[in-house]
Amino acid sequence: MQKILVTGAAGFIGFHLVRKLCANGAHVLGYDNVNDYYDVSLKEARLAELKKLENFEFIKADLEDETTMERSFAEFKPEIVIHLAAQAGVRYSLDQPRKYISSNIMGFMNILEGCRHHDVKHLVFASSSSVYGANKKVPFSENDNVDHPVSLYAATKKSNELMAHSYAHLYDLPCTGLRFFTVYGPWGRPDMAYFKFANKIMKGEPIDVYNHGDMKRDFTYIDDIVDGIIKSSISIPRNIATTVEDKVDGTKSNAPYRIYNIGNNNPENLMDMIGLLEEALGKKAEINMLPMQPGDVYSTYADIEQLNQSVGFKPSTDLKDGISYFVDWYQKYY
């Protein structure tokens, strides 16, 4: 039975990933601090579902807790680590910047050290489409320059990519970074726009729509994301750079290291997503149009050709179906 450590197990993506991994026969150790960034009761409800699984264990601790992290690696001895835990959210980083440095930088350092010292075969870690900043070229490619983040959250994710590359190079630790694009679906994060909109529409409260609704997002359904993570985890990167040209290519490296976009490859208008929510909820939204918020970007659009070629990832859920699945869950849960 393969042993996999999943950080952020009580989170949105982590919850769905752990269920799928356990269903596939893996032995999973979940690691999460269950913080109050959003509704703790939702995280606890996810955990309650996971604890029903026979091949799941759980540790509640911070990423920055070096002692607990080291003990988790030493006792569990994971073959694969899938690191999803982080202080999330672009807008929250404007108010609480130190939380991002503590969790996303110091916490990730502890993950890298654990992998280095305990013979981990592959580290898969969550990056973000936010690293592309105000990039105007679309679709976003892994070869694009990402040296101009527009939020501290994005800067920490770019830092994670650089830190992982150094460990891959120095210690021959295979690392794969996944740049997630606007993940949504059942059991989702209440701080995400689609979830906040659903809450407010059902309460009859106005929703805040930035840039007067003129925004696009590459909405990616959770089941597609989980499929891509699992396929990536079993595709361990090796050195394939053989020429000077290859070494300049951002998707290749002298180290066993890869970065991939993981998205739907189909940006949707924000107002169209709101329309689908209204239709599924059976209720019209009262909309409060606002200018662009600091740290936000106009559009996200994933070029997923590299991931498709390397691991066979291709999303299959369109936005209309995905929003319908989310609303079905939302109405039952609440």
Q: What would you say this structure looks like, in words?
A:
It is a single chain. 42% of the residues lie in helices and 16% in strands. The model has no long low-confidence stretch (mean pLDDT 93). With 334 residues, it is of the alpha/beta class. Strands 3-2-1-4-5-6-11 form a seven-stranded parallel beta sheet, with helices on both faces. It has a two-stranded parallel ribbon with strand order 7-10. Helix 6 links the parallel strand 5 (122-128) and strand 6.
Which regions are unreliable across 5 or more consecutive residues at pLDDT < 50? none
The end-to-end distance, rounded to whole angstroms, is 36 Å
Helix content: 40-55%
The oligomerization state is: single chain
Number of helical regions:
12
**Silhouette:** globular
Total strands: 13
Q: Numbering strands along the chain, what is their spatial order in the largest sheet? A: 3-2-1-4-5-6-11
Task: Compute the CA-based radius of gyration.
Answer: 19 Å
Order of helices and strands: EHEHEHEHHEHEEHEEEHHEEHEHH
Topology:
Layout: E1 3-7, H1 12-23, E2 27-32, H2 40-50, E3 56-60, H3 66-76, E4 80-83, H4 92-95, H5 97-117, E5 122-128, H6 152-171, E6 175-180, E7 183-184, H7 193-203, E8 207-209, E9 216-217, E10 220-221, H8 222-233, H9 244-248, E11 257-262, E12 268-269, H10 270-281, E13 287-289, H11 305-311, H12 319-333
Parallel strand pairs: 1-2, 1-4, 2-3, 4-5, 5-6, 6-11, 7-10, 8-13
Antiparallel strand pairs: 9-12
Helix pairs in contact: 1-2, 1-8, 3-5, 5-6, 7-10, 10-12
